[in-house]
Amino acid sequence: MNKTLLADALGSPSAFGQSQFAFMRGNAFEARVKADGGAELLRLVHEKLDPRAEPPAAGVVPDLGAAGPEGRTARTALALREASAAGTWTLLDHPLLALEVAGSPAFLEPDAVVVHPDGSWTVVEIKSFPMLDGSADAAKVGAAARQSAVYVLALERVAARLDPAPEVRHTVLLVCPKDFSNLPTASAVDVRKQRSVTSRQLDRLVRVEDIAETLPEGTCFAPDLPPAELTAAVESVPATYAPECLSACELAFHCRARSRAQGAVTALGRSLRAELGSLASVDDVLSAARGTSGDPEDPTVAALRRAAALRAEALGTPGPARGAGNGATSHDAPADDARPAMAQPTGAACP
């Protein structure tokens, strides 16, 4: 199923992809990093990750071309095995790896994988955002770490089929432009935590076959279906939207619109959803804050009413209703129940 076409047919096209300028700039920077047989890239790997090894005089860059994704995956595995046995610095430029996701194969293409003289493997991720004074934007580095962790998992599957199994390093190399120049610099990023989280998430995923069995008979996701039928088919699959979906799923805009229409608090973020406990909708939250519903002994409800009372006092408006709740006002609500995260239940904005 092509989710990009599906999103277009639903009237919620995805906004994935970089601008043409950013795409060209990223390609130009990557080409510079890999120029001369990857000499600069291998130098950075040696300097940041393996300074005790023999410096890379001239790395090997094997041809990974093959027909189809299965052919390229097999060719990558063969090149990794040969490089590990050779004991020389080897650069695999855009190798193709396979990883099973919910029972179906997913093909992954890292920017590069470097084989060290000791036979170990390192993932290299090349990004066009800058490193200023040796550090980069934390959110972007975190996203790159999560992306690299998936590549590490896929490499581990390849290594497990070899005897002896080479080491897949859990410290990856992030290569970025230095300051405001086009010169490459690099930083070692430990992805053990991201790898563990991703592995657990993959293990918990429901298989595609199991999801298909729960769908109504005859369900079809063809983009050329009438809009009403296509929307009904898509909505027959359970989905919980969160802002993080915008960077990971082509159907995120469709799910966001549906989530907003339902008033789901998850649309405001998973962390807020966790704070609200059993209050799953915006209407439930507002009702609890106003004192018209909710258990007054519930710490979340008490915090919401305390926040509403403080807001009412600041604005000079009537506070939460008495009777249905604990009757708290801006003067008698218990201060210990107040939580900063719930201080503005009515002022949160959807992303």
Q: What is the gist of this entry?
A:
With 351 residues, the protein is an alpha+beta fold.
The count of β-strands is: 7
H/E order of the elements? HHHHEEEEEHEEHHHHHHH
Compute the separation of the termini in Å: 27 Å
- Using the CA coordinates, give the radius of gyration: 26 Å
**Class derived from helix and strand content:** alpha+beta
What composes the largest sheet? 5 strands, mixed
In helices, the fraction of residues equals: 40-55%
The strand order across the widest sheet is: 1-4-5-6-7
How would you characterize the overall build of this protein?
It is a single chain. The protein is of the alpha+beta class and 351 residues long. Among the domains are: 34-204, no CATH class; 272-342, no CATH class. Helices cover 43% and strands 11% of the residues. It contains 12 helices and 7 strands. It has helices at residues 3-9, 20-33, 35-49, 68-86, 138-160, 192-204, 208-214, 227-235, 252-262, 270-275, 282-290, 299-315; strands at 90-93, 97-101, 104-108, 112-115, 121-126, 171-177, 184-190. The strands form 2 sheets. Strands 1-4-5-6-7 form a 5-stranded mixed beta sheet, with helices on both faces. A two-stranded antiparallel ribbon has the order 2-3. Helix 5 packs across helix 6. It is globular and about 75 Å long. It starts with a helix and ends in a 36-residue tail after the last helix. Mean pLDDT is 84; it is low at 323-351.
Helices and strands, with pairings:
Elements: H1 3-9, H2 20-33, H3 35-49, H4 68-86, E1 90-93, E2 97-101, E3 104-108, E4 112-115, E5 121-126, H5 138-160, E6 171-177, E7 184-190, H6 192-204, H7 208-214, H8 227-235, H9 252-262, H10 270-275, H11 282-290, H12 299-315
Parallel strand pairs: 5-6
Antiparallel strand pairs: 1-4, 2-3, 4-5, 6-7
Helix pairs in contact: 5-6, 11-12
